[in-house]
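Problem statement: downstream parser choked on a complex file, so we are re-checking the raw output for the cytidine-5'-triphosphate run. The parser issue turned out to be on our end (a line-ending mismatch), but while we're here, posting the original submission so the record is complete.
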Amino acid sequence: MDGSAAAAMNNSVVVYGITGGIAAYKAPLVVRGLRALGIDVTVVMTESARQFVTPYTIQTISGNQVYTEMFSTVAASGFEIDHIALADRADCFLIAPATANFIAKLAHGIADDLLTTTALATRAPLLVCPSMNVNMLTNQATQDNLQTLQSRGIRILEPEAGELACGWEGQGRLPEPERIVAEVQHILSKKDFSGKNILITCGPTCEDIDPVRYITNRSTGKMGAALVEAACLRDARVTVISGPVHLKYAPWAEVIEVRSAREMLNQVNEHLVEADVLIMAAAVADFVPAQISERKIKKSGTGISSLDLAPSPDILSTLIPRKNAKIFIGFAAETESLLDNARQKMESKGLDMIVANQVGRKDTGFASDTNSGVILSPSGIMERFELIEKTDLAHKILDHVKDRL
Ligand code: CTP
């Protein structure tokens, strides 16, 4: 987890309700993931939940007392009433797994144990993560109850499909702990990009020589993925146009996969119209094979003694006439003359901002988790950064974008 995003989560309180489904075995990992973000986690467990995971395990991992009883002589704080104190303390109220029974009770305002009572009393945003047998999930009663919760603004994290503990195949699996933690992080993040559309290009492009061979570059898409996550967390609507990468983008983004510079150009052209901001983090090929052989080039034939290359279109330059009030941000990957090269690219490509990265060093640039360089605008240097986590750099870049929106 990056420093600034973790710092933003510090002092946030999640009240986490665990109900009695087999997926409760994932709960300790959810608690650990939340704590890794600096979130204070207080857990309430139903009686059934305690059949699957022990309060002692949860207490050890959360570092907080676990609440199980409606009527306890050990109150959350002094002589406060537990369910009200817990409900008031929450910045986010998470229930995972949420059984059909819990969902039914919440939908009908039934408060017959500590968890249901606390959930009814809280004014914090609720995130409900259903998990159950596929037939229980698709039962009209459960579907109606989920609909009711949704209509009240309660967030439902869709269960995943797959093999279920009960032996059935179908929808009903609790999403992985990382996914649940990400959803909580999304709820707790500041939402300073609400209503804004951001188009982000990521990764390398691959330029085919024949059906087997291609030329590409060292970009992994990490910087782009960090920007996608940061922008989604801050509530932007994010469209990603990605070259071939081996990483997962934040689950809230719409991802369009492309292969070549030409395909990337076509997709950027198509999606630019609705974008308020374009961030070109992709490492686009500058030269592509002049011809793509439809058949594999055999070494026994003429082979490949040289490759005929043609320049590819410079995507940013072609977009200058459509810029208008949109904010355009580019990246410059440089091994030398970082500032001069970046300034020149910013001018020639009509950018509002350029992020100049030092590449060619092991600890910074392509494939690494950190970057070193400078953020420039036409009026000068905005910020220098040295070995900064890409996730932190993503938030810094967005902070500068925010100032211009
Ligand atoms: N870029 C682009 N279209 C290309 C090549 C690059 O839109 N065909 C964008 C990149 O996404 C980046 C910026 O232009 O935001 C600068 O890319 P970079 O590779 O650093 O520079 P080039 O313009 O390709 O110049 P050079 O490779 O000579 O440094």
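For whoever reads this later: The two ends are 27 Å apart (CA to CA).
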